Model the fold of this input.
Amino acid sequence: MAFRDRKFWRADAKPLLARVSRRGVTLWYGRNKANLRLAVRVTVAGVAAFAIGRAFEFGQGYWAVFTAIIVLQTSTTGSLGAAIDYFAGTLAGAAYGAVVALVIPIDRFWTLAAALAVAIAPLAFLAAIRRNFRVAPITAAIVLLIPATQQSGVLAPAIGRVIEIAIGSAVGVLVSRFVLPSRAHHVVADVASDILSLSARLVALLFAGFGERRDLAAIVRLQDGYRRLLVRLDGVVSDAERERIAHFGAEPDSEPMLRTLRRIRFDLVIIGRAAGSVLPDSLRGSLWPRLEAVSERLRAYLADAARSLAGRQPAPPLDALNKTFADYAAGVSELRRAGVTRDLSDEEATRIFALGFALDQLRRNLGDLNQRVAEFARPK
Done:
């Protein structure tokens, strides 16, 4: 009988397990959709460049494949900028390397070493000044080393490399434009949405420190994640600005979104420092319930704003959240009028003052964030 019950339980559990699995796959796909799209584009670009190189029987067809993979970015504008930079650096390195090879013999060890020094030094200096020429020293070295090792001419490898780089760059840009294309403006919204989702989790951990022992390791991981996403957003915003200038579409300026998210990160850092230890006993009864309300409403707002950005929907309302901010400020004022704050130590008083300042700044910055989210919403 026990066996039969176990058998029936397995049969009943199968639909539940199937639903859980589908939900897990759906959530995983939602979090990694942009990464999967980029992986598809990179794969298509690499295979297409390989096919073209094989069709034209290039001697070093792998350079076209390498270039197509390297220049692929998350947005079309980013791919175009990377392709231009990579081709310009390759052209400069190939041309200068060929000139050096024609002037300095490369058939002996010491003369080849001297030619490498003469070729690499100025190009390395140029790359340090202009990052779009960072492949120039590598290209010049390849132009010198391949003929020296293969006992071949200088011009043919140099011209061949430039042609293959041009083909790989063109393939990368075309694939980025026509295979699952992604506008930089949309990528900005997606990355900003990820930042807000992470912020909602971070807020829960930070505010917990006012009433109980906090998980410092988890807070550090989320703060590092916030910083990395901001760095990524900074790069994408530059691509979005080039898109906007080039009139790809009448999109809003993405720079204010980056500035606002940086300010919110600073506000959360101050709150985290204030939450380094639990509230004093004299304040906990009055302020802890109010801080819990702020935390709950703030997490809900950040999650709603993240969904609005991801779906290009109107910004969520701020009224309920602003009410909790005002309620906390009123609680602090009541304690001050009652003289409770005068009994605090200097350290405790500084924490309460810093917290009040951070919450007020956060309220202002969230108002600015609401405007930024509204700008990214699709017009009705």
The chain is about 80% helix and 0% strand. Residues 2-55 form the longest helix (54 residues). The two ends are 62 Å apart (CA to CA).
